[in-house]
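Students often ask what a holo structure prediction actually looks like on paper. The answer is less mysterious than it sounds. You provide the chain, you provide the ligand, and the output is a string of discrete structure tokens encoding the 3D arrangement of the protein together with adenosine-3',5'-cyclic-monophosphate.
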Amino acid sequence: MYKVRFLTIVAALAVVLCQFVLLFASAIAPEALAGGGWLPKVLWTITCLAGAHLVNRAIDVLIWDRLVAKALGGTVPAILKTMVAVVVYLVTMSMVVGLVYEQNVAAFLTALGAGGVVLGLAVRGIFSDLFTGLAVNLDGNVVIDDWIQLSPRSAQARPLLGRVREIGWRSTQLETEDGTLLIIPNTVLAEDLVTNFTRPTASTRYECTIDLDPSVPCDRAKRILLGAVRSLVISRGFVADKEPAVLVSSTSEIGIQYLIRFWIQPWNPLSPTTACDAVLSRAIQHLTVAGLAPARGKTEIFYDRIATPRMDDTTAEGRSQLLQGVQLFTSLEEEDRLLLAAELKRLVLPAKETVVAQGDNGDTLYIIAEGALDVLVKTEQAPEPVRVATLGAGDFFGEMSLLTGEPRRATVQAATPTVIYELSRDTVAELIERRPDVADVLSRAVAERRVGLDAAHRNAGHAAKEAAVATLSGQVSRLVRDFFSRRIRSSFPVPS
Ligand code: CMP
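The corresponding structure tokens follow.
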């Protein structure tokens, strides 16, 4: 605005100043103006162009902003003002060419036209925008302050919705509901499908849907929903003189879908979304008063991963499950396993921890839940303990001392971090009393393991014998070499 005022003042000053100089010069030194000198031509050119600017300003203020704006009931599109201003300047320049410079106006206009064609080809996109803008202005389907929606032809692009703020010579400005400004090239406006919500009247019908249970009779449902939407029509933004309606729209497994139709003046002040919110909220309120609610799906489907087997050994059931996996107890009934589970003592051991030591007294049986344990035997022949077996999850140990009362026959040491369960002799005795077949499994294990232990002892003896022979043969071999080397040296003395 300040820029426009400044330019107007400058133009007015330029006219006054140029005319004053011309007047002064013609009075003081008329010969300076005679003979078609350059000074009067420049002064007249400035006067004419500044005058054209003042004329345009006058047209703006008096015609566009007062008469036309009043007639249209809004703002005059900038493109009309620009076009008229261009015509005024064109006429002025033709006058300057013809009258001041005494040149052929037709030739000037032809040259201008030729230049225009070249320029037009170079910037045809701009010209396309320009003429589309003109067309939009002239046909009057979209004017400033209209609410429009542009639906791009491509299915992927989302529709653009907003109020027309300006239709310029290149683009149209839309103010969206979010308060942002969209600058849309006029050619886009011409190509897209435009929905004008403000025409032919400001009122527009919208609709929203709600599902109700099929057990609610349609008459009742319509009565309640119509009452709800009808109670809203006097609210601001709704159109009071247009009746809302409720229709059955479809049926589905959820229920019966009702279509609620209502009239609003979009964005004045309600947006369709806000209006829908108001209608549905009121509908739910009325349904609640009637003891009803929107329908819900009757089928509930839960998606879950297929349960992975997981044992919780802190519970009796979990421990019973653990015992089921131990070969010793596979023959037991669930009831026996549960009784046994209650007696289990849980031990968590780090690697290298010794559970039972060879030679110690013991009256407990162990069941391995997690990890691995080495069975080590010390023999008289071998200085280091020999590993005779490695036991894992589901195995048991300690049965030898438990059953025979003899000291532990081997050392059992955790090879990895381990979880084991301890059973007392009394518990095992009670179990054997109830289920004698357990004693058979234990006895068989004792027998098999003893054989294993004896073999280890024998192997250790054999290995010890082998080691003793190897040591002795080494010593003999050294003696023999010494002896023969001495004999050879005495037979063939080395010369000194
Ligand atoms: P016990 O003698 O009470 O303590 C050491 C345990 O090591 C022993 O019971 C058996 O349970 C176990 N054991 C001994 N020898 C073997 C073997 N050869 N194989 C597996 N386990 C054994």
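The longest helix spans residues 437-491.
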